[in-house]
Amino acid sequence: MEQAQHIAIVDGVPVDTRHWIGGRRVTSRSTFTDRSPIDETPVAEVSAGGAAEVDKAVAAARAAFPAWAALPVSERSAILRRLADGIEARVEDLSRVETRDNGSLIRSHRRGVMPRSAANFRYFADFAEKELGHPDMEVRGHRERIGYDPAGVVAVITPWNAPLMLATWRIGPALAAGNTVVLKPPEWAPLTASLLADIAHEAGLPAGVLNVVQGTGRQAGAPLTAHPGIDRLAFTGSVPTAGVVAAAAASNIVPLSFELGGKSPLVVFADADLDLAVDLAVEQFDNAGQVCLGAFRILVEETIAQDFTERVLERARQLRQGDPRDEDTDISALISRPHFERVQGFVDRAIADGARAVLGGGPNPDLGGLYFAPTILLDAAPGSEIVTEEVFGPVLTVQTFSSEEQAVAMANATRFGLAATLVTGDRERADRISARLRAGTVWVNCFFVRDLGAPFGGSGKSGIGREGGIWSFDFYTDIKNTVIAPSGWTGGQERANHG
Ligand code: TXE
């Protein structure tokens, strides 16, 4: 009975709404209401943590650290592979809960996002066990041995657009490297983090190795970022919050990994495969545009602009907007009322500035609620807010260019540099242009494909650092160089005899 109070049944799946600290459930006196974007109804009352819960979680993580770090890597990796198995076994539960919680499509969760969350553990467990390390180096007869020591307690703060996937992307390598973790999930979609804690526990992850503190950014996130007991801070979210987080972490000199927003271009040349270019443009409406990597700024060569835009419009009109739990739905709702108003504000100001909405421009009249219609804007003023700031909604702008030079200048004309996509039939042009783009990832005639071993991160205001493969371990470890002289060995016994 006592426990039932803390269990929310979310589309048939029981979810514990309390924190997970030191291997047990912990309640806070106050709660916050978690609502579903699908219909704005409450889903759960979730424990609202603050400085006290953060203190407990950091202490639990610190206490668990020595034993977890000392465990042979093969044993740590075996547990993390079981954790991946546990996620795979519960893909359906995780998909249902995440879809209800953040409104993203269930079909994406089932087929892509949840399997990728499992892969985030499996990949880094394998990497730590089999690939981490360098051959010894030699300098003037000395041997140099490079080691990757776990850093300690890692704080992970995640956003709502892909909560479990983005959490596991940080937690996977952090744990594989031998660290312990305190996760603060997003208050707009906090529930899959709780399921992750259950799955980790069932997989045999020792108490305190992974802790989850629920709560708002200000109440739970802020004390975590300022906590003197953390050794690394991995944050995914917005640029303004990143500034606050960086300032909080500064006094403890904690290394940061930031994955922030973007305003990525989709650059379409006249020599492109137009079907492919149209597909890639329409793909940007995925997750209702709530994707940091999304290429929402379409830059198209003037000579094909009219044909291309008409074809994109035709395809975008066919998108089915509605309940994300329906496998046939292509585009769903925005996360929250404040976010909806924010997106509407961007579009209204763009139109006041001279842009023309040739599709959408506001709420879907048939659905209401948080369903913002797929929107395409033409004639946006160069340099205006709508083509430089992250909207994080289903809003594409189409602008034209007439030369490579102009295409590159327009593509680079934001403070962000997360990604860029080029569509061209000319291999040499692709090489020329991609070399000049300021972006952490450039896709040529494709989008969203990336191996977990490849570096991922943003240039400019899109982030600090890179993660993926060895780059994750560069961040989550203290790299140590041990230089060993060829001489000086007297033997342990002899040395002891010398006193
Ligand atoms: O992000 P925040 P929000 C962008 C996108 C979106 C905007 C706002 O443009 O419209 O950000 O989203 C925690 N100390 N992205 O408000 O505030 C917070 O609880 C410590 C891009 O959700 O950055 C949450 O867990 N933590 C992004 C996390 O930070 C704090 C994805 C992110 O929240 C905190 C999401 C504080 N003072 C939004 N304040 C991407 N790169 O994909 C908040 N938090």
Helix-strand layout with pairing:
Blueprint: E1 7-10, E2 13-16, E3 19-21, E4 24-26, E5 31-35, E6 42-47, H1 51-70, H2 73-89, H3 91-102, H4 106-130, E7 137-139, E8 142-150, E9 153-157, H5 163-176, E10 180-184, H6 191-202, E11 210-212, H7 217-225, E12 232-236, H8 239-250, E13 256-259, E14 265-268, H9 274-283, E15 297-301, H10 302-317, H11 337-352, E16 356-359, E17 375-378, E18 395-401, H12 404-411, E19 416-417, E20 419-423, H13 427-436, E21 441-444, E22 459-460, E23 463-464, H14 469-476, E24 477-484, H15 492-497
Parallel strand pairs: 9-10, 9-12, 10-11, 12-13, 14-15, 14-20, 15-18, 17-18, 20-21
Antiparallel strand pairs: 1-2, 3-4, 5-6, 7-8, 8-24, 13-23, 16-17, 19-22
Helix pairs in contact: 1-7, 2-4, 2-6, 3-4, 4-5, 9-10
The structure holds ligand TXE.
Structural class: alpha/beta
- Summed up, the helix count is 15
User: Compounds present?
Assistant: ligand TXE
% residues in beta strands: 15-25%
Using the 3D structure, state the CATH architecture of the largest domain. 3-Layer(aba) Sandwich
What is the CATH top level name of the largest domain? Alpha Beta
**What is the general shape?**
globular
Number of domains: 2
**Order of strands in the sheet with the most strands?**
16-17-18-15-14-20-21
Task: Report Rg.
Answer: 24 Å
Summarize the structure.
With 499 residues, the chain is an alpha/beta fold. Helix content is 39%, strand content 21%.
